[in-house]
Write a structure and sequence with these properties.
The protein is an alpha+beta fold. The protein is about 15% helix and about 40% strand. It starts with a helix and ends in a 7-residue tail after the last strand.
Protein backbone atom coordinates (compact mmCIF):
# COMPACT_ATOMS: atom_id res chain seq x y z
CA UNK A 1 0.00 0.00 0.00
CA UNK A 2 2.83 2.34 0.93
CA UNK A 3 4.51 1.58 -2.38
CA UNK A 4 1.34 2.47 -4.27
CA UNK A 5 1.02 5.75 -2.42
CA UNK A 6 4.66 6.53 -3.04
CA UNK A 7 4.30 5.83 -6.77
CA UNK A 8 1.12 7.91 -6.98
CA UNK A 9 2.82 10.84 -5.27
CA UNK A 10 5.78 10.49 -7.63
CA UNK A 11 3.51 10.58 -10.70
CA UNK A 12 1.71 13.64 -9.35
CA UNK A 13 5.02 15.37 -8.65
CA UNK A 14 6.35 14.66 -12.17
CA UNK A 15 3.11 15.84 -13.79
CA UNK A 16 3.19 19.03 -11.72
CA UNK A 17 6.80 19.64 -12.76
CA UNK A 18 5.96 19.14 -16.45
CA UNK A 19 3.08 21.60 -16.23
CA UNK A 20 5.36 24.11 -14.54
CA UNK A 21 8.07 23.68 -17.19
CA UNK A 22 5.62 23.98 -20.09
CA UNK A 23 3.98 27.00 -18.50
CA UNK A 24 7.35 28.64 -17.93
CA UNK A 25 8.37 27.90 -21.53
CA UNK A 26 5.34 29.70 -22.94
CA UNK A 27 5.91 32.63 -20.60
CA UNK A 28 9.58 32.67 -21.56
CA UNK A 29 8.82 33.22 -25.24
CA UNK A 30 5.83 35.51 -24.93
CA UNK A 31 6.48 39.16 -25.78
CA UNK A 32 4.14 42.09 -25.49
CA UNK A 33 5.02 45.57 -26.68
CA UNK A 34 3.80 49.05 -25.92
CA UNK A 35 4.31 52.36 -27.72
CA UNK A 36 5.25 55.48 -25.79
CA UNK A 37 4.30 58.41 -28.02
CA UNK A 38 5.82 60.92 -25.63
CA UNK A 39 9.36 59.68 -26.26
CA UNK A 40 8.83 58.01 -29.65
CA UNK A 41 10.34 54.87 -28.16
CA UNK A 42 8.78 51.44 -28.26
CA UNK A 43 9.67 48.79 -25.66
CA UNK A 44 8.77 45.14 -25.48
CA UNK A 45 9.13 42.87 -22.46
CA UNK A 46 7.77 39.72 -20.85
CA UNK A 47 5.80 39.27 -17.68
CA UNK A 48 8.30 36.70 -16.46
CA UNK A 49 11.20 38.81 -17.72
CA UNK A 50 13.61 36.27 -19.22
CA UNK A 51 13.37 37.50 -22.80
CA UNK A 52 14.61 40.99 -22.02
CA UNK A 53 13.66 44.11 -23.99
CA UNK A 54 12.96 45.01 -27.60
CA UNK A 55 13.32 48.73 -28.28
CA UNK A 56 12.48 50.58 -31.50
CA UNK A 57 14.26 53.89 -32.06
CA UNK A 58 15.42 55.93 -35.06
CA UNK A 59 15.31 59.32 -36.71
CA UNK A 60 11.81 60.82 -36.66
CA UNK A 61 12.41 62.92 -39.77
CA UNK A 62 14.55 63.51 -42.84
CA UNK A 63 15.29 67.01 -44.05
CA UNK A 64 16.80 68.52 -47.18
CA UNK A 65 17.44 72.26 -47.41
CA UNK A 66 18.43 73.64 -50.82
CA UNK A 67 20.00 77.07 -51.19
CA UNK A 68 20.31 79.16 -54.35
CA UNK A 69 23.92 77.98 -54.56
CA UNK A 70 22.85 74.32 -54.49
CA UNK A 71 20.48 74.91 -57.39
CA UNK A 72 22.82 77.14 -59.44
CA UNK A 73 23.78 76.30 -63.02
CA UNK A 74 27.32 75.55 -61.87
CA UNK A 75 25.91 72.70 -59.74
CA UNK A 76 23.87 71.13 -62.52
CA UNK A 77 23.89 67.30 -62.46
CA UNK A 78 24.60 67.31 -58.72
CA UNK A 79 22.35 65.07 -56.63
CA UNK A 80 21.53 66.13 -53.08
CA UNK A 81 20.70 63.63 -50.34
CA UNK A 82 18.83 64.45 -47.14
CA UNK A 83 20.30 64.28 -43.65
CA UNK A 84 18.82 64.49 -40.16
CA UNK A 85 19.72 68.20 -39.84
CA UNK A 86 18.85 69.33 -43.38
CA UNK A 87 22.40 69.88 -44.64
CA UNK A 88 22.59 68.14 -48.04
CA UNK A 89 25.07 65.39 -48.82
CA UNK A 90 26.35 66.13 -52.33
CA UNK A 91 26.99 63.55 -55.00
CA UNK A 92 28.50 64.25 -58.42
CA UNK A 93 29.84 62.15 -61.26
CA UNK A 94 33.36 63.17 -60.29
CA UNK A 95 32.77 62.58 -56.58
CA UNK A 96 29.96 60.10 -55.96
CA UNK A 97 28.82 59.54 -52.40
CA UNK A 98 30.17 56.49 -50.63
CA UNK A 99 27.89 53.50 -50.16
CA UNK A 100 25.62 54.10 -47.16
CA UNK A 101 26.46 57.77 -46.70
CA UNK A 102 23.03 58.78 -47.95
CA UNK A 103 21.07 56.35 -45.75
CA UNK A 104 19.42 57.47 -42.50
CA UNK A 105 18.35 54.97 -39.83
CA UNK A 106 14.66 55.72 -39.33
CA UNK A 107 13.93 52.49 -37.46
CA UNK A 108 16.36 50.49 -35.31
CA UNK A 109 14.91 47.45 -33.55
CA UNK A 110 17.20 46.34 -30.72
CA UNK A 111 16.81 43.07 -28.85
CA UNK A 112 18.71 42.74 -25.57
CA UNK A 113 18.83 39.50 -23.58
CA UNK A 114 17.10 37.44 -26.23
CA UNK A 115 17.14 33.67 -25.89
CA UNK A 116 19.84 31.99 -27.98
CA UNK A 117 18.78 31.03 -31.51
CA UNK A 118 15.16 32.07 -30.91
CA UNK A 119 13.77 34.24 -33.73
CA UNK A 120 11.77 37.29 -32.69
CA UNK A 121 9.40 38.87 -35.21
CA UNK A 122 8.59 42.51 -34.46
CA UNK A 123 6.05 44.40 -36.57
CA UNK A 124 5.85 48.19 -36.61
CA UNK A 125 3.08 50.20 -38.24
CA UNK A 126 4.75 53.23 -39.85
CA UNK A 127 3.17 56.44 -41.07
CA UNK A 128 5.18 58.60 -43.49
CA UNK A 129 4.06 62.20 -44.03
CA UNK A 130 5.40 65.04 -46.16
CA UNK A 131 5.63 68.19 -44.03
CA UNK A 132 5.22 71.46 -45.94
CA UNK A 133 4.36 73.61 -42.92
CA UNK A 134 7.23 76.02 -43.63
CA UNK A 135 7.31 76.17 -47.42
CA UNK A 136 4.84 75.51 -50.19
CA UNK A 137 7.02 73.68 -52.68
CA UNK A 138 5.79 73.40 -56.25
CA UNK A 139 6.75 70.08 -57.78
CA UNK A 140 6.55 69.13 -61.42
CA UNK A 141 5.48 65.69 -62.55
CA UNK A 142 8.27 63.30 -63.40
CA UNK A 143 8.11 61.04 -66.44
CA UNK A 144 5.58 58.28 -65.92
CA UNK A 145 7.27 55.07 -64.78
CA UNK A 146 10.37 56.90 -63.59
CA UNK A 147 9.62 58.86 -60.39
CA UNK A 148 13.25 59.94 -60.10
CA UNK A 149 13.19 61.65 -63.51
CA UNK A 150 14.23 65.29 -63.80
CA UNK A 151 13.69 67.30 -60.62
CA UNK A 152 11.28 65.25 -58.53
CA UNK A 153 12.44 64.59 -54.99
CA UNK A 154 12.19 60.89 -54.18
CA UNK A 155 11.95 59.04 -50.87
CA UNK A 156 13.11 55.42 -50.67
CA UNK A 157 12.80 53.05 -47.70
CA UNK A 158 14.95 49.94 -47.52
CA UNK A 159 15.84 47.25 -45.02
CA UNK A 160 19.37 46.78 -43.76
CA UNK A 161 19.18 43.20 -45.08
CA UNK A 162 16.64 40.47 -45.82
CA UNK A 163 15.64 40.37 -42.14
CA UNK A 164 13.78 43.68 -42.53
CA UNK A 165 10.73 43.53 -44.79
CA UNK A 166 8.59 46.48 -45.86
CA UNK A 167 4.92 46.59 -46.83
CA UNK A 168 4.09 47.15 -50.50
CA UNK A 169 2.92 50.76 -50.05
CA UNK A 170 6.33 51.73 -48.67
CA UNK A 171 8.79 49.45 -50.45
CA UNK A 172 9.24 51.39 -53.70
CA UNK A 173 10.39 54.89 -54.58
CA UNK A 174 7.87 57.47 -53.32
CA UNK A 175 7.56 60.63 -55.37
CA UNK A 176 7.29 63.67 -53.08
CA UNK A 177 4.67 65.27 -55.28
CA UNK A 178 2.44 62.25 -54.61
CA UNK A 179 3.28 62.29 -50.91
CA UNK A 180 2.51 66.01 -50.74
CA UNK A 181 -0.90 65.33 -52.30
CA UNK A 182 -1.64 62.76 -49.57
CA UNK A 183 -1.37 65.51 -46.93
CA UNK A 184 -1.68 64.42 -43.29
CA UNK A 185 -2.89 60.98 -44.39
CA UNK A 186 0.54 60.22 -45.78
CA UNK A 187 1.48 56.65 -46.59
CA UNK A 188 1.24 53.80 -44.10
CA UNK A 189 2.57 50.27 -43.98
CA UNK A 190 3.95 47.51 -41.79
CA UNK A 191 7.67 46.95 -41.38
CA UNK A 192 8.79 43.60 -39.93
CA UNK A 193 12.08 43.23 -38.08
CA UNK A 194 13.37 39.68 -37.68
CA UNK A 195 15.89 39.39 -34.83
CA UNK A 196 17.65 36.23 -33.68
CA UNK A 197 18.59 36.13 -29.99
CA UNK A 198 22.17 35.39 -29.02
CA UNK A 199 21.56 34.39 -25.37
CA UNK A 200 23.77 37.19 -24.05
CA UNK A 201 23.38 40.81 -22.99
CA UNK A 202 24.98 41.95 -26.26
CA UNK A 203 22.28 43.76 -28.27
CA UNK A 204 21.05 42.45 -31.63
CA UNK A 205 19.85 45.15 -34.06
CA UNK A 206 18.10 45.39 -37.41
CA UNK A 207 17.58 48.66 -39.28
CA UNK A 208 14.99 50.33 -41.49
CA UNK A 209 16.76 52.99 -43.56
CA UNK A 210 15.58 55.85 -45.75
CA UNK A 211 16.99 58.16 -48.39
CA UNK A 212 15.60 61.38 -49.83
CA UNK A 213 17.21 62.74 -52.99
CA UNK A 214 16.85 65.50 -55.54
CA UNK A 215 18.93 66.15 -58.64
CA UNK A 216 19.73 69.62 -59.99
CA UNK A 217 18.96 69.01 -63.64
CA UNK A 218 16.60 71.68 -64.99
CA UNK A 219 16.78 75.44 -65.30
CA UNK A 220 13.32 76.12 -63.84
CA UNK A 221 14.31 74.44 -60.59
CA UNK A 222 16.23 77.58 -59.63
CA UNK A 223 13.02 79.51 -59.09
CA UNK A 224 10.86 76.71 -57.74
CA UNK A 225 13.22 74.87 -55.41
CA UNK A 226 16.08 77.17 -54.36
CA UNK A 227 15.76 78.21 -50.75
CA UNK A 228 13.25 75.44 -49.99
CA UNK A 229 13.29 72.83 -47.24
CA UNK A 230 11.88 69.35 -47.69
CA UNK A 231 10.90 67.49 -44.52
CA UNK A 232 9.58 63.94 -44.19
CA UNK A 233 8.17 62.80 -40.84
CA UNK A 234 8.07 59.20 -39.62
CA UNK A 235 5.82 58.01 -36.80
CA UNK A 236 5.12 54.56 -35.37
CA UNK A 237 1.49 53.94 -34.44
CA UNK A 238 1.98 50.45 -32.99
CA UNK A 239 4.72 47.91 -32.33
CA UNK A 240 4.37 44.23 -31.45
CA UNK A 241 6.76 41.31 -31.10
CA UNK A 242 6.29 37.56 -31.09
CA UNK A 243 8.34 34.43 -31.61
CA UNK A 244 6.21 33.07 -34.43
CA UNK A 245 6.12 34.42 -37.98
CA UNK A 246 3.36 37.01 -38.51
CA UNK A 247 0.45 35.76 -40.62
CA UNK A 248 -0.52 37.54 -43.83
CA UNK A 249 -3.69 39.63 -43.72
Amino acid sequence: MDKKNTMLLTVIAVATLLVAVVGATFAYFSISATYDSATSKVTGNTENAKVGNVVLTGSESLALTLTAEHMATAKEETTYWASTNGTPIESTVEKPIQNGENKIDVGVATLTGGSADVVYYCTANYKVVYNDANTNIVFKDGTEGNPNDNDEAVLTLSGEDENVTIAEDLNSAINLKALQTEGETGKTGVVTFKLTGNGTDSPVTKKLQATLSLKNSKEDQRERLAGKKFTINFTVTSFNCDTTAPTAD
